[in-house]
Write a structure and sequence with these properties.
Layout (H helix, E strand, L loop, with lengths): L2 H5 L26 H26 L23 H9 L6 E4 L5 E4 L1 H23 L11 H21 L2 H7 L5 H6 L3 H17 L5 H23 L11 H9 L5 H23 L2 H29 L1 H13 L1 H4 L1 H14 L5 H6 L7 H5 L15 H7 L5 H5 L5 H5 L6 H19 L8
Antiparallel strand pairs: 1-2
Amino acid sequence: MEIEAVKEGVFEGKPGFPTQYGPERTDYQPGVPFWPHEVYRDLVIVFILTAILFFLSAAYTPIVGPAANPAIQPFIVPDWYLLFSWGLLKLADVLPTIVFVDPFGNVINMDAAFWGNMLTFPLVLLPLFLLPFIDRGREARPAKAPVRSAFGVGFFLGFLFFASLYATNDRILASWPFMADDALKWMVVVPPILIGLATYVGLRRLGFRDMYWWLVVAIGGAFAILVLMTFWAFALGPWGFDGIDPLTRLARSLGDPTAWPLMFFMIVILVYSAILFVATAFLRERKAKEVILVATVTAFFTLVGAAKVFADANWAGTYYALRMIALYSNFFVALPLFSLITFYLGTRTPYSTYEYLLNECYQCGKCHTVCPVTKVEDDALGGLNLVYNTFKKEHDGVPLWTCLACDACSAVCPLDIKYSDYILEERSKVMANRMAADGGRRPAG
């Protein structure tokens, strides 16, 4: 069949074929009506949630005390939806303060408040204004636009979260003295980037793309950075930092009991990251998943048990380890978690390829119109089209073998769903099962 001829609609108007397409078609209207089904269900959910609120209000009456005095509060924070802006105001103190006079004689003070406001607009508000003008494509599903989705869902939301987290840095430092303010500042930069990369890998995998080299490069790069940061921080400091070479410094650390907990924790993290990289690069996915699952459980319980033992026997060393890990948490904590999450997202098994594609189908009927099989397939006429029946397995299996794989349906599909790929894949599965049941011999005929 000539694809171009099919595209011209040569079958339209023939007896027995629908000519009404889209949601306004009168011969068949798919889906569940909004009234009364969805309305009743939403009302039931609203009533249940309201009943829960009434129950909690009656059973656990909150104690209403005197009004808070803002002048004596140890920690003052704005509303939650403005925390990111306050966090950016605090971050702006790292930028230089500039004072100059404009041509009209006005003194402009470019201090932390000025830089904080400037960061809030271009980093947060401006992308929201520009998004409707930039995102003009027809694709709405994240897997079809992984770059855009990874930036929005991964980096952008991660940036807002960690900027809001830094807005409470004074409370965090007061609650956990071993934390460092510099580490909290870098959390606004490093984790959002890692979240965006991991989200991108997961979305590409969801779109059925090969992710081997993406995983090898991402997890290998994380392991290399972790090794370099370990050398920088614990072996220890750059060459000539205080006239002591790194090997001598490392030997002194090995002889200092205070540094032993830190050394042990770092060895466990490095070994675990190395296993992640080796399993990703040299093992098949199924075997790599088994190895990494065992390594993750083992590393977790090893670190928890070691923390308990060291805390009881060497609290000074444990506090020093917590202090150093917190100081470099953007690397020693974030990178192993990034490697694990990226491996999981990059190797998870998505659902059926054809199901993934058919989720876009809105049953316009064009595939049914141009299909030459439906001219002789009586039970296909007047019901769901051949393509949809095969996928839902609501037929008796006949469409699986009567399909000509001519791709006429794919040629007219407005969403470019390749039905023939699914048919050929399903046929190969059936033949493989038959050969396995027959002892590996080809079936007769």
